[in-house]
Amino acid sequence: MSTLEVNKFVTPEMCMYCFDVLNASLHSSQFPVEPRFQNDSFPLFVTWKIVHGSDKRLRGCIGTFSKKKLHLGLKSYALSAALEDSRFDPVTATELPSLQCTVSLLIDFEKVDDCMDWEIGIHGIWIEFKDHLGMKRTATYLPEVMSEQGWTRMEALESLLRKGGHVGRVSKALIKGITLTRYKSEKTSMTYGDYVQHHIHIREQHELPLPDWITVKA
């Protein structure tokens, strides 16, 4: 089950736009025209994964908790997630046919008093804590991460602390000092194959040739 029963804001066209933007960047072609979906402001994340059968491997994920206009925000984070995630080498054109794009719009933010007051599979979590030097650190996991990893709440918090830069033992005092904000997301995903099929359908309707950069799997 998705994090929300009904998506009110996110649409598949948002993933298509991310693919359009990445395609244009990797092939040095003209960026797509302004999309037709709404241009309201949301915190958002763009996630790229490599898909081989049932196996999915993270290839890049970057976003923001600040509200961004969707047209510019998706364009910016589609590229930064694919090309600037420091955990990975930049995505290459040869990887495009294996990519899946997920757009997550973040909603329903709630700061909670108890850092265990959230539900796996329902909430994403954003934590703030101080490291051993007293510096404030932050880190987040989107709602799907904990259920995909099979973590308990405590395992998720420990992993998130390390993601935020904590080293050493995770003490009760450290856990108690966490400020946690829970949130939900609306998300939609699309594979490159689905993206290509859409382009084929639209261009057949208008009797237009496919652009050179579209690769159709045999």
Automatic annotation (TrEMBL):
Query: Start and end of every AMMECR1 domain?
Result: 3-199
Q: Which InterPro entries match?
A: AMMECR1, AMMECR1_dom_sf, AMMECR1_domain, AMMECR1_N
Which Gene3D superfamilies does the entry mention?
Answer: Hypothetical protein ph0010, domain 1 (3.30.700.20)
Q: Which SUPFAM superfamilies match?
A: AMMECR1-like
Q: Which Pfam families match?
A: AMMECR1
Q: What is this protein called?
A: AMMECR1 domain-containing protein
Native organism is Sphaeroforma arctica JP610
